[in-house]
Each structure stands twice: as C-alpha cells, then as structure tokens.
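Summary of Year 1 activities. Much of the first year was spent building the evaluation harness for sequence design. The harness presents a backbone, in tokenized form, and records the residue chosen at every position. We chose the following record to illustrate the format because it has been used consistently in internal testing since the harness was completed.
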C-alpha cells in the first residue's frame, strides 16, 4: 500500500511539473491572454474582450529579459501589447513590473509624425479618414454620444477609428521617429492616452524591447452585465491574416 501511494505521488508530481513547464513555455515564448481594461481601442476592441496575444510575432525573447533569440520587425497597423513605466498604474504581474498597454502601431522608425486638428500626418501626408456612419460612444463618466465612425487608410492598412465631436484634441508637432522606436495611437482617438500625451508637447515612443506581442484574435467577450457577446468571439485582429 505504501509503495502504491509513493507511485501515485510520483505520478502527480510528474504531471504537475509537466503542466508547469508547458504553461511556462507557452506563456513565456508563444501566447498570452490579455483582457481589454479600457475604451481606448473602441470600436475595434471593447471593455470585456479577451484576446490571444502572440509573443513570437516579432521574435522570441528569453523569459523575464529583453534579450531576443531572433527578431522580426513590427508592421504598421498592427495592434500591439507593450509595457511602459511611469503610467501610475499597477504592474502587470500581481501589481509588480511594468504595466501592459494595447494600442495600434502608427509610426515606424524613420517616419516624420505629426498630429493636428484631429488628423494624423505621416511624412507630410495627411492620413485620409472617410466617415462611414456613427457609433454610440459612452464618454468616461459622462453621457453617450453619437460619435462619427471613420475608415482610416493608414498607408494601405484600413481600419476603423472614432472621434468625439466635442473634443478638439492635442496638437503635436512633426517629429522624426528614432531607430528602434515606434508611435502608437488608440482607435478611439479622443479617449486614448497614447504617444501624443506621454512627452507633451512632443511625441512619446515605444522601444522595440518593450513590445510584448501582437494581438491575434478575440477569444471571449462579455459586456458590463456579464452577457456574452458571441458575435465577437474569434474576430481576427491581424491586419494580414497570412502573417
């Protein structure tokens, strides 16, 4: 009987160790879940969406370090998860470490980026946005407004954005994006603390080492009343599904 119990205990330890290693490898090198905490990426992402984030989309790093085993460049228009200090928000792991954020990658190294009159400029070119309708947008601690809904053509990548007609927004002068750094914006342009605000009146940047992965698809979603939004499940978030 004692030998049998030892065998059972040994089997349990083996399974537990294998499960731990599998979790460590998958979450450390491959995929990680991410929950949308704010409205800054509406209408693309809603509060209550749960995403799968690919951690090897831009390379594999040694877990708990910023050292990459191999690397691939991000692509303009990608929705990226990144870490950032100085936000005043709790860290991503039991309140420790840097907080994780999610935004759309807008500016690449070597771009000249500007923002004025609710319009994005890249290399002197105004990025076109065509209004396609309206969207019922709940303002933070305020009423719900019918916000203009646009299709933005981000140099060949088309995605939806929102503007709050009652918000003028900041003005950020033209700045050259440094090597190894990127500019990010929220799709909910007038309710997103992003690269326009981090180093006012200049742009703030995301270093390549701080990019943790690319949003792949929505795996689950429910609203503020815990009602599932089945129509959002498995919605693709990649600008090019073949990548």
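For this record, the design step produced the sequence shown next.
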């Amino acid at each position: 009987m004692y030998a049998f119990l030892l065998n059972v205990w040994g089997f349990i330890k083996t399974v537990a160790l294998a499960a731990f290693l599998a979790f460590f490898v998958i979450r450390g090198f491959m995929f990680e879940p991410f929950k949308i905490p704010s409205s800054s990426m509406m209408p693309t992402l809603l509060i209550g969406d749960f995403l799968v984030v690919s951690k090897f989309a831009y390379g594999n790093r040694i877990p708990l370090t910023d050292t990459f085993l191999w690397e691939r460049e991000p692509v303009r228009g990608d929705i990226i998860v990144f870490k950032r200090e100085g936000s005043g928000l709790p860290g991503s792991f039991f309140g420790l470490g840097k907080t994780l954020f999610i935004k759309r990658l807008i500016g690449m190294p070597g771009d000249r980026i500007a923002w004025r009159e609710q319009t994005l400029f890249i290399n002197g070119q105004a990025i076109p946005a065509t209004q396609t309708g309206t969207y019922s947008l709940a303002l933070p601690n305020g009423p719900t407004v019918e916000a203009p809904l646009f299709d933005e053509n981000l140099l060949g990548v088309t995605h939806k954005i929102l503007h709050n007609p009652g918000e003028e927004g900041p003005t950020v002068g033209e700045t050259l994006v440094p090597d190894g750094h990127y500019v990010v914006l929220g799709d909910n342009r007038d309710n997103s603390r992003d690269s326009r605000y981090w180093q006012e009146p200049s742009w703030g940047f995301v270093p390549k080492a701080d990019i943790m992965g690319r949003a792949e698809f929505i795996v689950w979603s429910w609203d503020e009343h815990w009602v599932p939004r089945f129509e959002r499940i498995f919605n693709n978030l990649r600008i090019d599904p073949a990548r």
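The CA atoms of residues 95 and 168 lie 34 Å apart. Quantitative recovery figures across the full test set are reported in Table 2.
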